Amino acid sequence: MTNPLWYRSASVYQIDPSRFWDSDGDGWGDLPGVTARLDHVRGLGATCVWLLPFYASPFRDGGYDVSDHLAVDPRLGDMADVAALLQRADELGLRVLVELVAQHTSDQHRWFQEARHDRRSPYRDYYIWADEPEPTEVSPIFPTVEDSVWAWDGEAQQFYRHVFYSHEPDLALDNPRVRAEMHRIMTFWLRLGVSGFRVDAVPSMVERARAARPDTDGHWLLRDMRAHAWSQQPEAVLLGEVDVEPKQYADYFGDGDRMTMLLNFWANNHLFLALARGDARPLADALRAQPVPPSHASYAHWLRNNDELDLERLSAQERDEVLAAFAPQEEHQAYGRGVRRRLAPMLGGDPRRIALVHALLLSLPGPPVLRYGDEIGMGDDLSQPERLAVRAPMQWSDGVNAGFSAAPAERLVAPVITGGRFGYETVNVYGQTLHGDSLLSLVGNMVRTRSGLREIDPHGMTLLDVGAPSVFAVRYADERTSVVMLANLSDQAVTARLEGDGLGGLVDILADHDYAEAAGGPPLSLELAGYGYRWLRPRDRFFG
């Protein structure tokens, strides 16, 4: 049975295949390793897997420096391994999203190598060249690493443009042949059985489309992508990396004919501002300030991802508040704009607070995205450069190399985190599986409970004022029932007071601990412990 709106109730689990599980003992995680561990993902309650790049690559940028979009890097497996992964995911009821990296390639890509060797090559115009660096509205994505978006190529005897690293030349999406290549890549993976793409660097792609048709805003490119995806797979989704001002979100949704979902950087930034202040109002205000998505579109929310926590949507003063709370040391920070720490260390390793923040994430309107390892409270490795600090191997057990690989430690794709509060000796999947009160158990219970809350929809959302600034409170309602979700961002106990129609007879369906039933009314009084959370539904939803 098909379900074209499957993503609306999805819970997404982000996996870096190179760091998840090593099946063959060579030190690198791989696709067979992901396949072998999909039971963990399904057991957590997730319904969709987002795979970070596994394509052929020099892996100078975590695989986003693609050298062949239609090949699997041999360190991670082969095409048969992709097919086996997709088959196992289907057996478990898991959808699979893969990366669409079409803004740039690796400088080792065949297209770029042929382009630089010969000005007459048909691939020359696949990239952006200039005899002298040209003024441009774009600036380096990594300003502390790259001081220009132009780099000189001695063989080509021209400059080429690169918004990201200098080893990642920008593709000329204003060239229709490049767009045809992008469609061919999409067709290949969709026909193989993926459910869609996380689309990398969407605003940069739109900028090149605008160059192709200066009389437009460039968003026609997104309509073309969506139409092509649908022509191959009617249930396919495009999850866009779109870090822009919220007033621009509507341009990326269109009328539901552009990006299916947007990763919500605006809400993400203000969530951490709210956490830093112990005050839910910045998050609530941020949600009110962004447009409601079209009926067949959605935001996607997350806590931490594969990159730095980019705080560019905050004011300078707000950014300083978040850095002071969660990244007070220079080694905690990245690119002069964000945080290169994992979630658990940012929250001081406090299991109550980590659980509370997951409850907060899962109460937001749109699919939640969980990063591998956050469900057990993994730490970071600040000895690694830039964003590699948050890309340590998954911690499966307290055995050798955290159960990630049987290879000698010096051959691992990245060091495992050892010793201290977040070392694999004490933080691992196996150890937490044995305890019903572990973070893994708590987060899994939240994810599975949320999957049954079909009321959660931005079109049925009401943000509530409960008389306690530290409490994020939201109500979702449809024609049948409703759910109220509360999260206390303070370490102090508070009383939340609920007023309005349809709030009588509420009972807990999930909470950080047992609470007395809601008292009085109107208004109803609900107690919340420090870092407490409660999800409630009307009693008659259960007892008739």
Describe this structure in words.
- It is a single chain.
- With 544 residues, this protein is α/β, with parallel strands linked by helices.
- It folds into three domains: 6-102 and 176-449, Glycosidases (TIM Barrel); 110-161, Oligo-1,6-glucosidase, Domain 2 (Oligo-1,6-glucosidase, domain 2); 457-543, Sandwich (Immunoglobulin-like), CATH 2.60.40.1180.
- It is built from 16 helices and 23 strands.
- It has helices spanning 31-36, 38-44, 79-91, 110-117, 176-192, 202-212, 220-232, 249-253, 265-277, 281-289, 316-326, 343-346, 351-362, 429-433, 439-451, 540-543, and strands at 12-15, 48-51, 55-56, 68-72, 95-100, 129-130, 150-153, 158-161, 196-199, 237-240, 261-263, 298-302, 309-310, 333-334, 338-339, 368-371, 461-463, 471-477, 482-488, 494-498, 506-511, 524-528, 533-538.
- It has an eight-stranded parallel beta barrel with strand order 1-2-5-9-10-11-12-16, surrounded by four helices.
- The longest helix is centred in the middle third of the chain and has 17 residues, at 176-192.
- It is globular, with a radius of gyration of 23 Å.
As for the CATH topology of the largest domain, it is TIM Barrel
* Superfamily (CATH H level) name of the largest domain: Glycosidases
User: How many distinct beta strands?
Assistant: 23
Percent in helix? 25-40%
Rg from C-alpha positions? 23 Å
Sequence of strands across the biggest β-sheet: 1-2-5-9-10-11-12-16
Low-confidence stretches: none
Per CATH, the class of the largest domain reads Alpha Beta
Structural class: alpha/beta
Distance between the termini: 30 Å
| Mean of residue pLDDT values | 95
Strand content: 15-25%
**Major sheet characteristics:** 8 strands, parallel, barrel
User: What shape does the CA trace take?
Assistant: globular
Number of domains: 3
**CATH architecture term of the largest domain:** Alpha-Beta Barrel
Q: Count the helices. How many?
A: 16
